[in-house]
Specification:
globular; mainly alpha; 69% helix; Mitochondrial carrier fold
């Protein structure tokens, strides 16, 4: 009797163990239970990590964003002539002029809406990049997952697609904040370029845009921003992914493993250059689409450009092809350190989550 009870008890315990460990007993129908998603790879955690990292990065790089914006708007739709007055001659001179005449507040214009834009853009694209990439790998490559023992074979095309999709989604969500940020950064009482909107704050800007153009006004230029973020994000996330994997595979013996700050730094340096090359033309168009004055018709549209393609055409036909690379150095000085800081920050936040959460 006792033996029977003990046997029954032992059998029950074996089934429980089999369920817990995911090992099917002979003749049983016990299925392997799915492993729980680690907290550091949870979408909410990665979204928060991306938001915090990008906000930390933009605090240091926003001054170069102000310089870039003004260089891109300078001489808008005007043919270059020897006598053309240009208040900003190059990156360093523009930085000095803005700092001297407008102070630190001038160099940090648009930082408030810049934080909100970073949360919407980078929180979304960094938070959802891995889940979207996982879906694409399962759908098109039959790869169901990865582990430290069996890492997933990288496929650049799928990484590019995942990065582009997430970037476009983030740009759409953050478009109103990018709109206000651009207009605040172009405003100057000393050396004005482009149309001057003269917002006193982020809230004042959003209120005036809503009053004059409603929802359409708030989302003017969103299509250009989605092209900009889609191009940049597809290159940035895929290139960073590939560079980090390459460095950790080939330089692990020198201490550059997957979790090394040095690995993240090197991968980010390479990534920043390629992103800037691809993104700058879209960035010029996006800046001009956002900053143009409202249409006299009062329907929330712009007075200079109806859509990004027209902006491309008018910019190149009037100012030449290389006008699409206006502010390139300022863009790289902003984007390079931003990429480095953002990825180093986000990797360290993830490492903290992996260790303590």
């Amino acid at each position: 009797m006792n033996d029977s009870a003990n046997g029954s008890s032992g059998s029950s315990a074996g089934v429980v163990d089999a369920v817990v460990q995911g090992i099917a007993m002979p003749g049983s129908v016990v299925a392997k239970m799915p492993e729980p998603v680690p907290a550091h790879r949870n979408i909410m955690f990665t979204w928060l990590a991306g938001s915090m990292a990008s906000c930390g990065a933009v605090t240091f790089t926003n001054p170069f964003e102000v310089v870039k914006t003004r260089l891109q708007l300078q001489g808008e739709l005007a043919k270059s002539t020897p006598n053309m007055v240009k208040p900003y001659h190059n990156v360093m001179q523009a930085f000095w002029v803005i700092g001297k005449n407008e102070g630190l507040r001038g160099l940090q214009k648009g930082l408030g809406p810049g934080y909100m834009y970073q949360i919407m853009l980078n929180g979304t694209r960094l938070g959802f990049y891995e889940p979207v990439k996982g879906v694409l790998y399962r759908a098109f490559a039959g790869q169901t997952g990865e582990s430290q023992q069996q890492p997933r074979r990288p496929i650049i095309a799928l990484n590019v697609a995942a990065g582009g999709m997430c970037g476009m989604a983030g740009a759409a969500l953050g478009s109103p904040f990018f709109l206000v940020k651009t207009r605040m950064q172009s405003a100057s009482n000393f050396a004005a370029v482009g149309f001057q909107h003269n917002y006193t704050s982020s809230v004042d800007g959003l209120r005036k845009i809503w009053r004059d153009g409603g929802v359409r006004g708030l989302y003017r230029g969103m299509d250009a921003a989605m092209m900009r973020a889609g191009a940049g994000s597809s290159v940035q996330l895929a290139t960073y992914d590939h560079c980090k994997s390459y460095i950790s595979r080939n330089l692990a013996h020198r201490g550059f493993n997957d979790n090394s700050v040095g690995t993240h730094f090197l991968a980010s340096m390479v990534t920043g250059f390629f992103v800037c090359m691809v993104m700058n033309p879209f960035d010029v168009v996006s800046t001009r689409m956002y900053n143009q004055k409202p249409s006299a018709a009062g329907h929330g549209g712009g007075a200079l450009y109806k859509n990004p393609l027209q902006c491309f055409y008018k910019t190149v036909s009037t100012e030449g092809f290389f006008s699409l690379y206006k502010g390139f150095l300022a863009h790289y000085l902003r984007l390079g350190p931003h990429t480095i800081l953002m990825f180093v920050f986000v990797e360290q936040i993830k490492a903290f989550g992996k260790k303590y959460i």
